[in-house]
Amino acid sequence: MTSQLCDMLGIEFPLLAFSHCRDVVAAVSRAGGFGVFGATAHTPETVREELKWIDDHVDGKPYGIDVLVPENMATRGEGSVTAAALEARIPEAHRHFAERLLADADVPPPAEPVSRNRAQPFDPETALRTLEAAFEHPIRLIANALGVPPPEMIAMGKQHGVPVAALVGAREHAIRQVEAGVDIIVAQGTEAGGHCGEVSTLVLVPEVIKAIRPIREVPVLAAGGIMTGQQMAACMAMGAAGAWTGSVWLATPESETSPVFREKMIAASSRDAVRVRSRTGKPARQLKSTWTENWEKSPDSPGALPMPLMSLISEKSLRAADRAAEAGNDKARDMVTYFVGQGVGLVDSVRGAGAVVQDFKEEYLEAVERMNSLLAD
Amino acid sequence: MTSQLCDMLGIEFPLLAFSHCRDVVAAVSRAGGFGVFGATAHTPETVREELKWIDDHVDGKPYGIDVLVPENMATRGEGSVTAAALEARIPEAHRHFAERLLADADVPPPAEPVSRNRAQPFDPETALRTLEAAFEHPIRLIANALGVPPPEMIAMGKQHGVPVAALVGAREHAIRQVEAGVDIIVAQGTEAGGHCGEVSTLVLVPEVIKAIRPIREVPVLAAGGIMTGQQMAACMAMGAAGAWTGSVWLATPESETSPVFREKMIAASSRDAVRVRSRTGKPARQLKSTWTENWEKSPDSPGALPMPLMSLISEKSLRAADRAAEAGNDKARDMVTYFVGQGVGLVDSVRGAGAVVQDFKEEYLEAVERMNSLLAD
Questions:
Q1: Is residue B74 part of a domain?
Q2: What keywords would UniProt list here (chains A, B) (predicted)?
Q3: Which of B204, B230, B313, B327 has its CA 20 to 30 A from that of A180?
Q4: pLDDT band for position A115 (50/70/90)?
Q5: How confident is the model over B133-157, as pLDDT tens digits?
């Protein structure tokens, strides 16, 4: 199909796939979708390496990147802070609670020191330098996952002729984003995996479209819960220009997820995707596990720390749980979790990323045919 | 259009409208939708009176009724309990907190005594006698709003050849309902007004359709957040047999809502519809107001009471607030609330119920045309 959005991105089927995994990005774009590489926590050096790999495997098809430049963090206004300095701010109670959860599940404590090479989490300066590095590659979209993109980011997009997208979870945020100059709005419902708001996709998409129409004509992508071409068609019937997806790619062999997590995805119902603070410090939807349940509900829980401190505890602890689970520890398996949306309830198999794109196309057409046949009867 | 559901209900446009107001029910059915009269808390006598009125005003068009027979209540297993006896169980702390909220807003305390004529809230025996009275009228659907309908209800439906519908908020509940013998499933997302679960409509509808398919062929209506024909088309693109709606009718002049509440609906965004316990004791979505905020967040709040005790406090208090607000009390206006879904963010005017049905039909066709023109381009 053709549309303003398809023209902007150089595609014919407006299925956008967010993934931290270059293999998914390349496979989706090759199959006719549009891969978006999640570059948060990357350095300019590592992003160059990843995008070079994508360039070598994407057959010249378009793709984009996504960074996270949050407006509100515990480190706001402090400039550059080392990861080691951040680590030192984690209260003893939180450190001990995480250690006890791991010990109770017979998970060996994470040995890894705070890496000196890894970018400090969510540092705005690093994010902008990472973006500069990304522009050495033929990226066709830059997206900001949280809050209004900084003016530098919008300026960089304009300078390179690359559209800037922003994720929003509320009508009010969409208005701010359009006024700030973004080119594409991603209206993400509460059912989405990762950071999300409280309004459902079915309501948010038409609400955002209606709210921004008087300001400027900006394509709105629907996000949150979309795992099938029927759901994509549903959102486009309401006026969305396409679909932004994430969780569906976690159940592909190309993804960064572990086999254990993929098995848990297949077993899960939509109600197992809970919106809690116990991974990043902000409400983010993820698979319910003994990690999320204990941080949220245990009487001993010290509660979640603000972003970015919570991730310093959770990421290394959960990597340790992943390793133990893969080695056959059932209590560690119960702890395994990852960002995933309510759409996890629709997952019943692991499929290749290219096959998922094909299924979306077929399901999309089936949905349109269904609409026509209902009227024809 | 024709479909299994349309045949079951004797309609051509599968837009179902739940309303406590007979005027809405008759107007929707006359306009080609299907009105469903909310008969909870009615006695056999009052339901006869209401349905007689509908029969006189519906031009022979089909309509249905909805009752609420919850499985879990504070009064479970107690048989018949008088409203006065229930009133006596309300703790002093809760009574005082409600009184103080009203006093702080200069709302005169509710003078009304516990009515002896009114049915006790949600009494299963009364609900079944009410249903019997309803079958003296040409009803075409009986629906149960909470939990699995009791076997007597399903038997009554079969005996009269009237389909039985049940609302569900989770895949697991849909499976139980189909196994119990219901004829129509209403899959209601978390964005819905009133009692609701946690899964969004966009995910729940395909998840429920997929889960019940192996058991029996049962039409699934989509519910939660649906205020427009585009959203109805979206849900039907995913396989829903039609739409079950509620909140959209509250912004009609035929509705039981006050002018003040309708003005608040127009001003509200989707995030103003909060899912809290402070009206019925179970999580129910309603307009955020000083009533909901104080019960949920005030440090002095004693917390919500279980169903049905909470309604005994909230209903009379909120009626008093409504009256004071209509008389011009601004603090009372801030307290005014009612069950409403996130779709409230899409309301920008008060329209007649018949006009809403017409708009749904036109918007539905526009959505189908949009889908076709996207593919044709």
A1: yes
A2: Flavoprotein, FMN, Monooxygenase, Oxidoreductase
A3: B230
A4: very low
A5: 999 999 999 998 777 888 888 999 9
Facing residues of B34 across strands? B16
Question: Residue B139 and residue B64: Cα distance in Å, rounded?
Answer: 5
The whole-angstrom separation of Cα B316 and Cα B318 is: 5
Position B181: which residue type?
G
Residues of A in Cβ contact (< 8 Å) with B377: 1-3
Q: Tokens in use for B93?
A: 């702390």
Q: Domain for residue B324, yes or no?
A: no
Does the beta carbon of B257 lie under 8 angstroms from any beta carbon of chain A?
A: no
Cβ–Cβ below 8 Å for A231 and B342: no
Cα Rg of chain B, angstroms? 20
β partners of residue A165: A143, A184
Indicate if the pLDDT at residue A114 is higher than 70: no
Q: Is A345 on the interface with B (CB under 8 A)?
A: yes
| Mutual angle of helices B201-212 and B171-180, in 10-degree steps | 40
Of B207, B237, B342, the CB nearest to A203: B342
A117 and B CB contact within 8 Å: no
Residues 160-179 of B with CB under 8 A from A: 170-172
How many residues belong to chain B? 377
Q: Does A149 touch chain B (CB under 8 A)?
A: no
**Tokens in use for A251?**
């159940």
The conformation of residue A253, written as its DSSP 8-state character, comes to: T
If you ran DSSP here, which 8-state letter would residue B271 be given?
Answer: G
- State residue A190 phi and psi, 5-degree precision: -65, -20
> Which residues of A are less than 8 Å from B234 in CB distance?
202, 234-235, 237-238
Domain count of the fold of chain A: 1
Supply the range of the domain harboring residue B31: 1-81+120-246
Contact check, Cβ <8 Å, A200/B189: yes
Residue among A203, A204, A220, A349 with most chain B CBs within 10 A, to mutate: A203
In angstroms, the CA A118 to CA A6 distance is 35
Look up the CATH number of the domain holding residue A41: 3.20.20.70
Burial (CB < 10 A; 0-12, 13-18, 19+), residue A16, is buried
- Please give the residue of chain B at the shortest CA–CA distance from A242: B374
Give the Cα separation of B270 and B273 in Å (integer): 6
Would residue A134 count as lying in a domain?
yes
Residue A376 pLDDT class (50, 70, 90 cuts): confident
CA-angle at B152, arms to B146 and B156, nearest 5°:
105
pLDDT tens-place string over residues B24-63: 999 999 999 999 999 987 889 999 999 999 999 999 999 9
> Which DSSP string do the residues of B75-126 spell out, in sequence order?
TTT-----HHHHHTTS-HHHHHHHHHHHHHTTPPPP-PPPPSSSPPTT-HHH
Chain B residues near residue A234 by CB distance under 8 angstroms:
202, 234-235, 237-238
- Token couple for B65: 């009724």
Determine the distance from the C-alpha atom of residue B214 to the mean position of all C-alpha atoms in its chain, rounded to a whole number.
Answer: 29
User: Taking CB atoms and an 8 Å cutoff, what residues of chain A touch B233?
Assistant: 237-238, 371
Residues on chain B touching A219 (C-beta within 8 angstroms): none
Could you tell me what percentage of chain B is helix, strand and coil, using 3-state DSSP and rounding each to the nearest 5?
A: 45, 10, 40
Spatial contact of A14 and A243, defined as CB atoms under 8 Å apart: yes
Per DSSP, helices labelled H in chain A are: 4-9, 22-30, 44-57, 83-87, 92-104, 124-134, 151-160, 171-180, 201-212, 229-237, 259-267, 290-297, 309-326, 330-335, 353-376
Nearest to B25 by CA among B143, B193, B123: B143
What are the backbone dihedrals phi and psi of residue B309, each rounded to the nearest 5 degrees, phi first? -65, -40
Predicted pLDDT of residue B118: 46
- Residue A41 lies inside a defined structural domain of this protein: yes
